[in-house]
Amino acid sequence: MQCAQIQINYYYVGLWTGHDFHSQFPSFATCSKTELIDLSTVDVILISNYHCMMALPYITEHTGFTGTVYATEPTVQIGRLLMEELVNFIERVPKAQSASLWKNKDIQRLLPSPLKDAVEVSTWRRCYTMQEVNSALSKIQLVGYSQKIELFGAVQVTPLSSGYALGSSNWIIQSHYEKVSYVSGSSLLTTHPQPMDQASLKNSDVLVLTGLTQIPTANPDGMVGEFCSNLALTVRNGGNVLVPCYPSGVIYDLLECLYQYIDSAGLSNIPFYFISPVANSSLEFSQIFAEWLCHNKQTKVYLPEPPFPHAELIQTNKLKHYPSLHGDFSSDFRQPCVVFTGHPSLRFGDVVHFMELWGKSSLNTVIFTEPDFSYLEALAPYQPLAMKCIYCPIDTRLNFIQVSKLLKEVQPLHVVCPEQYTQPPPAQSHRMDLMIDCQPPAMSYRRAEVLALPFKRRYEKIEIMPELADSLVPMEIKPGISLATVSAVLHTKDNKHVLQPPPRPTQPTGGKKRKRASDDIPDCKVLKPLLSGSIPVEQFVQALEKHGFSDIKVEDTAKGHIVLLQEAETLIQIEEDSTHIICDNDEMLRVRLRDLVLKFLQKF
Amino acid sequence: MPEIRVTPLGAGQDVGRSCILVSIGGKNVMLDCGMHMGFNDDRRFPDFSYITRNGRLTDFLDCVIISHFHLDHCGALPYFSEMVGYDGPIYMTHPTQAICPILLEDYRKIAVDKKGEANFFTSQMIKDCMKKVVAVHLHQTVQVDDELEIKAYYAGHVLGAAMFQIKVGSESVVYTGDYNMTPDRHLGAAWIDKCRPNLLITESTYATTIRDSKRCRERDFLKKVLIPVFALGRAQELCILLETFWERMNLKAPIYFSTGLTEKANHYYKLFITWTNQKIRKTFVQRNMFEFKHIKAFDRAFADNPGPMVVFATPGMLHAGQSLQIFRKWAGNEKNMVIMPGYCVQGTVGHKILSGQRKLEMEGRQVLEVKMQVEYMSFSAHADAKGIMQLVGQAEPESVLLVHGEAKKMEFLKQKIEQEFRVSCYMPANGETVTLPTSPSIPVGISLGLLKREMAQGLLPDAKKPRLLHGTLIMKDSNFRLVSSEQALKELGLAEHQLRFTCRVHLHDPRKEQETAMRVYSHLKSVLKEHCVQHLPDGSVTVESILIQAAAHSEDPGTKVLLVSWTYQDEELGSHLTSLLKKGLPQAAS
């Protein structure tokens, strides 16, 4: 379950969003902790991948959320399939009434684990309907990788390929001077999706890192090998293989491995069945997202050939797909065989039937590949079980070695991650390598905790109109550094700032038609610049002489000099950082002296 | 003065060999690299020697963009990149990248194998050329280099057709390529956001046509007919159209498609279904629109079969290949019909028969008499005048430039655009350069402190009293920052130099200094209502930050000296005060 929220510049960006299954009952814990976040104040939700949008209907349909949801096209299409399958599975087993008394805290604590440890059971809900799914999905704006999306003129968000699944994205959230990367569910392995875009994550002020592998100790390649050999072994001995799985994702890679493996392993006559209400759609959709696939698969489309070899498995009748085990499947069904079906939690869906059908024979094998569920817990209600159980979790998301490689490459100023990534897993507390190690140390957050991101906004973009730019007079202060004083009119619209030239003064200074004394005070006064520099006394005296002052006397003081103009009864104190002109009320004289002093100073 | 320069090398007041050079923000971009189907000589390709007289094209051009796979937009690409020599990036969409090499190869075969042309690009050159292609997604912002970025929009003309935005800093140009503003049976409508480019370069093929809905044209469509088409594009739409019509009317007459390309072509449509229209995308799992039941592959022998039939044959302008062969075979019979579903460029047989010519001179001085009916049905997916105006309205450009059309028709459209949108509209001929001065604003970073200070003051904007923002622009290399003057001094490690004035104002007042100060205070308080006037415990008076002290005159006890002291920054108020005080104080009531 992942969910984070980032507030930038007063706009909330939600980074969404998964859910937990507590499907024995079937009710679902969603991620929103409503007292913490008022969802009607969330402006935008960014979806990372199709697994991370399963709670979307709860948010868009029931919380007052009125913002925009952004996701890539494959994410939406496959997310729809996952939700459709879920709704279909749940609706097959309608419950006349639902149990809710157990949610009482006094009863709950008496229940066996994991129920007694479950948090916030009162917020668990019934599964949504297909109608709610369609309504939720209709609120999504489709975006492409590297598309810059302007939000309110103040923030720009951009999805980048995360390499984990079809259309899976990391998100850049940036203003002109700050950059936050949200890295969730990324993979550096070469599987079917487009490789992860690492380069665009560089120069991040903050990198939020989540969705790492659930099984940091398992090597996905090794697991695939084990999967194939166990599958072959079982089938050769006349047993059946059951693979509980989601209808999209790793199954494409498994089918591709099997495509290469079956002939050499002598399995050409073994039927593969893929049973899911969305099996056909999933297989078809996988073939039309060429632009979201890895390079090898893209080039196949140019031939033109379907990018995934399961098209050929279907054509040659080796792979057959069915919406459910009723209907055509029951007449086609041959054993021994391999069945891919859901749900991987083993709590609902067609997989339940196969567990009951094959569980009693030790010839059969169930192979767990999805990492989201503890296989022991999944199997618990089916015990005692004669069938073999193989655990080959295939999780291609980043492990800790890859994370440190990534962080070295990308070099964010700060890393923010869930607390559990900053310490070794509780079961392997000696494995110091199973945690995020970076400098400065990652900032961690806990569920429902508010974390201030460690950057201070200092600058914002403003545009200087060309006419104003032409009127500026830059002067070089230091080699390579020039300054120009700017007096301009600020216009701000839709969070965009523009500087325009000041209007020409309507009244010339020192206006002649003076009616009342207060009329003369300028409304839109021209600000005087700050001064800097120092006045060299000798040159100053020379300048005075040149301008007709005579009878000049210079006295040294502790901090500088005093220049006396005896005739004019004027005294000029000159120090390193200050000049003080003391004179009679003679404006002409004062202005002459002022201009002489200013000649030696720089204006800012 | 910065400017945008546009020079068409092809498609300037003409249709064919689209190729437009654009210089923007110091970057040079070539839009499309097409061939002309009406010519077989030098005029076939754009004149690339125009781009740079000496020096390599790669050094001069920052990138090349191809809008879609039609040969009049990409046909010269291998010649340009491999024979003239260009090694920079070539951008196009994925479907264009997939289909373009196939059409190029097809074109090469007709030119070299059938017509026996020498000095033409080879298959290997097509492959090498395609290696330089970088595929782009719709709406993806592609950073060509640090300054130049391009972005593709859906154009709906053929599968994978795109419009491109080219942007450098705040200056931008949009090039439409060919586009269609009404969704058809297999593609969606072109769309662009309100991106307000400095210049919109639009095609104008159907500048004077305003087409009615397609439905009415579909009705009286079918007899025994030859339909010359290009393998990809309109062909698919017409196939879908006939397929559904045959299905509905339960027709039995065979429909043939002439080339092996078609099956392959249909396969591309299946794999790139995300580029087709909403309806096809939605239903493709149940029924793929590109799997046709009634349309069969054509064999040359079928042309002599008796009875009605419909044959789709390539190419679409009857300038070569199978469509021309069948045309020659069928032209003599008035019961036959040829339907031209698209635009034909000058010089092609298609163009000739459409302009009413019925006696055609063929190769070897042979004259072919055309007795068959000739119909023109505009199925070509270009925007019509209404569509072009619609796109201009969508994008809100500062000016418009017309290409890919005939001069006369352009003239009409140009007037229309200038009248309706009040923007200038250009229509340069090939080799003619249009120069547009631009005045880009300059982006700088403003310190948040300074900005917030100003915004807090300016909460109630008043147009008559605009508020001035005062700050210092620090320019270091290409990094421009606007900060408060204080911050600028601090950052540069400079100390402020304080300039202070103290003026002596003599007042005739025999009273004590404290009383004089009091009188000054009450006078100023009554006169300067908008300023903060204070009387301090030590006897001095302040107006804002200006200090006034009263002192006794060293010689004349009847005179008091007012010392008015202010800094340079308060000069106006200070100088105003002294002149005010110089006039003396009003007589006290006593």
UniProtKB/TrEMBL annotation, chain A:
It is found in: Cytoplasm; Nucleus. Its main location: cytoplasm. It comes from the Eukaryota. Residues 251-379 form the Beta-Casp domain. Keywords: Cytoplasm, Nucleus. GO terms for cellular component: cytosol; INTAC complex; integrator complex. PANTHER family: INTEGRATOR COMPLEX SUBUNIT 9. Component of the integrator complex, a multiprotein complex that terminates RNA polymerase II (Pol II) transcription in the promoter-proximal region of genes. Component of the Integrator complex, composed of core subunits INTS1, INTS2, INTS3, INTS4, INTS5, INTS6, INTS7, INTS8, INTS9/RC74, INTS10, INTS11/CPSF3L, INTS12, INTS13, INTS14 and INTS15. The core complex associates with protein phosphatase 2A subunits PPP2CA and PPP2R1A, to form the Integrator-PP2A (INTAC) complex. INTS9 is part of the RNA endonuclease subcomplex, composed of INTS4, INTS9, INTS11 and inositol hexakisphosphate (InsP6). Interacts with WDR73; interaction is required for the assembly of the RNA endonuclease subcomplex in the cytoplasm. This is Integrator complex subunit 9.
Automatic annotation (TrEMBL), chain B:
One of its GO terms (cellular component) is integrator complex. Its cofactor is Zn(2+). It is found in: Cytoplasm; Nucleus. Residues 16-234 form the Metallo-beta-lactamase domain. SMART domains: Beta-Casp (SM01027), Lactamase_B (SM00849). Pfam families: Beta-Casp, IntS11_C, Lactamase_B_6, RMMBL. InterPro entries: Beta_Casp, INTS11-like_MBL-fold, IntS11_C, MBL, Metallo-B-lactamas, RibonucZ/Hydroxyglut_hydro, RMMBL. One of its GO terms (molecular function) is metal ion binding. Keywords: Cytoplasm, Hydrolase, Metal-binding, Nucleus, Zinc. Residues 235-353 form the Beta-Casp domain. GO terms for biological process: RNA polymerase II transcription initiation surveillance; snRNA processing. Its main location: cytoplasm. Belongs to the metallo-beta-lactamase superfamily. RNA-metabolizing metallo-beta-lactamase-like family. INTS11 subfamily. Component of the Integrator complex, composed of core subunits INTS1, INTS2, INTS3, INTS4, INTS5, INTS6, INTS7, INTS8, INTS9/RC74, INTS10, INTS11/CPSF3L, INTS12, INTS13, INTS14 and INTS15. The core complex associates with protein phosphatase 2A subunits PPP2CA and PPP2R1A, to form the Integrator-PP2A (INTAC) complex. INTS11 is part of the RNA endonuclease subcomplex, composed of INTS4, INTS9, INTS11 and inositol hexakisphosphate (InsP6). Interacts with WDR73; interaction is required for the assembly of the RNA endonuclease subcomplex in the cytoplasm. This is Integrator complex subunit 11. It comes from Lynx pardinus (Iberian lynx).
